[in-house]
Amino acid sequence: MRVGELSKRSGVPVATIKYYLREGLLPAGVLTSPNQAHYDDEHLRRLRLVRALVDVGGLSIASVRDVLVAVDTRDDSLHNKLGTVQEAITQPGSAELDPLAVKDVQEFFARQGATDCVDVTESHVTHMLATALSAARSVGHDDFRNLLDPYLEGLKIIARADLEYITRHGSPDDIIEGMVVGTLIGDAVLKAVRRLAHGQVSREVFGQRPPD
Amino acid sequence: MRVGELSKRSGVPVATIKYYLREGLLPAGVLTSPNQAHYDDEHLRRLRLVRALVDVGGLSIASVRDVLVAVDTRDDSLHNKLGTVQEAITQPGSAELDPLAVKDVQEFFARQGATDCVDVTESHVTHMLATALSAARSVGHDDFRNLLDPYLEGLKIIARADLEYITRHGSPDDIIEGMVVGTLIGDAVLKAVRRLAHGQVSREVFGQRPPD
DNA sequence: GCTATCGGAAAGGTACACTATCCATATGCG
DNA sequence: CGCATATGGATAGTGTACCTTTCCGATAGC
């Protein structure tokens, strides 16, 4: 197909597709003449992945590129690849780390027997966790960190489901793409379902009674 | 204090504070003369809340304003207030809803006995859920929706911890602010901890020591 | 032959979140 | 008092991100 049909089938404007091609988010089509190119279903699939990452995952164009590079790299262990992808799909966050929050994270790791797993200062994920705990402190919720353990308890159930889902979708190369999709779309789903759960809880607790 | 000290104590530049004042994110200080105003600890607290919503929650300035209006509204039930706040802290997402995804959401609600709770087409949260499921479909993960139930199972544990946290922090007016902080910072924490869990699981499965 | 579309490059546009400048006061210190 | 500095308020400007628009000469397809 040519770019017009790619646009029609994906819902992405032609100008935007050209922009993604320029930015390296989409591989170039096969040139059949100096100014005609041919795109296939892989391009369509990749384009839809890009839109999912941008729209649902909220990733920047630069992050999407990082993710796709990791997805496309073949000569790497799955574990390393997941690490690369996780860094790419986690927004860095520029602020300095609060030492108190770093200590919270380290204590959490120690409690969970994962001390050797990650260096707090080196990973976007732990940086994000420390930043969030620091923000909680700054608005007067010093003991928000006490929620880490129950959160992990619930997330173990969720991570188990994630793993099972991923391994069931064990097409040879799709597994990393499945991780990306599952992680980012999973984030959005978790966010939404958690809010629904809050709503139901709030209905039970604050529902009919008028406030004093 | 005057704006300079407010800036020093919060780490937010004076120009940015002025911008927030213009945008109604921060109430004006008490004027002691035509061009001198006085700010107190409430301003500092509010300013830190704004930064937490922007930095950790990733909210736009407009969304922050919506949240603060809801937080400051006094004559409303807590349940309604939570609803307003939830709408404000959940990005709308402009796309059309995919009927298949809407059906997934409705079936999920029916399974969980929450049919009367929310109108799928009317709430940002359900819109977000349907959008996420639709995106999953579009990249070839039609059965991602099967994860909804295990996700809810894990989130019940988490929501219970959230509720207990909120009610323990039951200062009369702070409860809504606690909900906002707990929800948004909680989102970030959940995201991070889930990635850590994935990393550990990946280490077990794909790392150097497979469990079996 | 004629019109629509193409690939490719470059310039333009829009939205957002600040940031800088200006100015007529006010403050605080010596 | 004198004077550098800071202030409130208004207006204009900046930087980044993500597209759009416009142009071009070259096909494609009827």
TrEMBL record, chains A, B:
Record bears the keyword DNA-binding: yes
PROSITE patterns tied to this protein: HTH_MERR_2 (PS50937)
HTH merR-type domain residues: 1-70
Key words, A-Z: DNA-binding
Gene Ontology MF terms in the entry: DNA binding; DNA-binding transcription factor activity
Gene3D superfamilies assigned to the protein according to its UniProt record, in alphabetical order: 1.10.1660.10
InterPro entries in the record: DNA-bd_dom_put_sf (IPR009061), MerR-type_HTH_dom (IPR000551), MerR_fam (IPR047057)
Protein name as it appears in the record: HTH merR-type domain-containing protein
Annotated source species: Lentzea aerocolonigenes
